[in-house]
Amino acid sequence: PDTSPIWIPRRKGTSATSEHSGDEVTVSPVPVADEPDTDLETDRLLGQQRTDDHGFYDEKEKEGGKKKGRNKEAMIHEPAVLIEGVLFRARYLGSTQLVCEGQPTKSTRMMQAEEAVSRIKAPEGETQPSTEVDLFISTEKIMVLNTDLKEIMMDHALRTISYIADIGDLVVLMARRRFVPHEVDDPPKINRTPKMICHVFESEEAQFIAQSIGQAFQVAYMEFLKANGIEDHSFVKEMDYQEVLNSQEIFGDELQMFAKKEMQKEVVVPKAKGEILGVVIVESGWGSMLPTVVIANLAPAGAAARCGQLNIGDQIIAINGVSLVGLPLSTCQNYIKNSKTQTVVKLTVVPCAPVVEVKIKRPDTKYQLGFSVQNGVICSLLRGGIAERGGVRVGHRIIEINNQSVVAVPHEKIVNLLATSVGEILMKTMPTSMFRLLTGQETPVYI
Predict the structure, then answer these.
(1) Taking a C-beta distance cutoff of 8 angstroms, is the pair 2, 99 a contact?
(2) Residue 315: closest CA among 297, 294, 301
(3) pTM, whole model, 2 decimals?
(4) With CB atoms counted within 10 Å of each terminal CB, which end of the chain scores lower, N or C?
(5) pLDDT (tens digit, 9 = 90+) per residue, 361-412?
(6) Same-domain check for residues 204 and 88
(7) What start-end ranges are recorded for coiled-coil regions in this protein (predicted)?
């Protein structure tokens, strides 16, 4: 039997090693050996577009047909965006090693992907260990970053990726592993069995993640051709796309709002010792000009509300002189909770409306907006794309599109409206948590 190790995220409160499917389990992050950048398969991946016989990207639906929560519009990235990099939020479930002999067919690869899933995915009804990660995809590499710890867990050169499988809400990423001698004098083993490491991720955007990696290979190939004097006009010219990017502007001049010191205000909140501040805070959203926290709700009789100087939508820059910019939400919450023993709390805030206004300039539908929507919520954003330049933020609920409310509009209609809109597209958004609190869909938990 195969005794390849399986790496899975550790559950809180468990020891570093536990049983899982009868195999050895090691705590993430996964140690991935450095790999040489050339071999026959790499040349094939870079030298050929996706084909039925030797495709490097595949997708498979779960038994029962339709995939849940899929956007109908395929996400096609501009070359300039993929060269710079695309970021997706996902859950890392674990990794395992598989033997890789000869030149496997597409069907063999899919069977290997399913084998990796069977080893790592917890049985129905059991708790699935996972770690929130950011998946960075570019024409150069694929990186996995721990969202909470801000650490790089994995870093694979794109050319070492041999297969990507999209199975329902799961993405299986397969990378070649090579023998790296522990000692300089260690002779290479000629008959050593090549192995492949398989990482398994879960995301509502599994299809888009797989597509993006496939497109990264295509763009890398096009860049290779361009460097050798061969042009392919099926892609939008890079300069043409750059002109569209340069035309974007942050609506309401948000940059000025945060850059000017006079726009910030110091708020002193008097309170009783042992009394909570009485606020709910949420993340400003990836893509915002300043990564900090936003006041999403105020307890009606709480200390923050009584002072009369704070409003829903205000961004908190610092508390008692400690900057909150760039810190995880949980850390910011702890700073606020720790002020419970104080009788005075000093906040530095930038007054903002709860609704963010976004203006995107799109001259033609051939220019991808650069974000995806699920049930009215912006769930991914292309770094450096049109939408990011215009101020669109991940995790925000779209309230209006071109002065038309979309709060009660079906998902398909929102996608169609965005896919077909050209010219100036005006949107109003707010953090999803704030929207749910304000509409009574969630009960506020004040801190």
Answers:
(1) yes
(2) 294
(3) 0.43
(4) N
(5) 887 777 777 788 888 888 877 766 777 777 787 888 899 988 888 888 888 8
(6) yes
(7) none
Amino acid, res. 155: D
Which of the pair, 83 or 110, is modelled with greater confidence? 110
- Domain assignment present for residue 30? The answer is no
- Residue in 434, 398, 396 with CA at minimum distance from that of residue 417: 398
Q: Tell me if 328 is assigned to some domain.
A: yes
CA–CA gap between residue 203 and residue 215 (Å, rounded): 18
Q: Summarize pLDDT for 13-48 with one digit per residue, the tens.
A: 443 333 333 333 333 333 333 343 333 433 343 343
- On whether both 381 and 344 belong to a single domain, the answer is no
Burial of 199 (0-12, 13-18, 19+ CB in 10 A): buried
User: How far apart, in Å, are the Cα atoms of 437 and each of 272, 295, 296, 298, 431?
Assistant: 26, 11, 8, 10, 10
Question: How far is C-alpha 144 from the geometric centre of its chain's CA atoms?
Answer: 10
> With contact defined as beta carbons under 8 Å apart, do 16 and 27 qualify?
yes
Same domain (yes/no): 371, 427: yes
CATH code of the domain covering residue 141: 2.30.29.30
